[in-house]
Amino acid sequence: MDKLKAAFDFRGRASRLEFWRYQLLQALGGGLILCLTVPATVIGGWLGAIPFLLLLPLIVACVCVAIRRLHDRNRRAWWLLLFLFGPFALAGLGGTLAASEETFLIALLVSLAGMGLAIWGWVEMGFLRGAKGATHFGPEPSRLG
Length: 145
Fold this sequence. Notes:
By secondary structure, the protein is mostly helical. The protein contains five helices and no strands.
């Protein structure tokens, strides 16, 4: 029960291992839910999309662990907005700019910047070591959990 409660807690810090466990859980759980939703929708119409609602708690848990992982890197939760929405915003801007031949190179550079931002977020949360010792976000997470 403590693990379930911790899954939805924004406070504290999360280790790289915990972050990757939740990423794996999200990928497997999301794939399973999608595999259930598609045939259920074909058979039952729009009511078959109800299993799709099971994604909401899964997404919330992954956002919580990503915030705790940023805390472990001694960063505030606002960085998650940059890492989640920044690449999409830059890709959308690049797509808009690509409509004109004159701005194609700028569109390419803006889109590449979005891809770079996504990679930076992935490396920041998934691969870089957390801050050593206690920070104002809490004590250092255990290496096993």
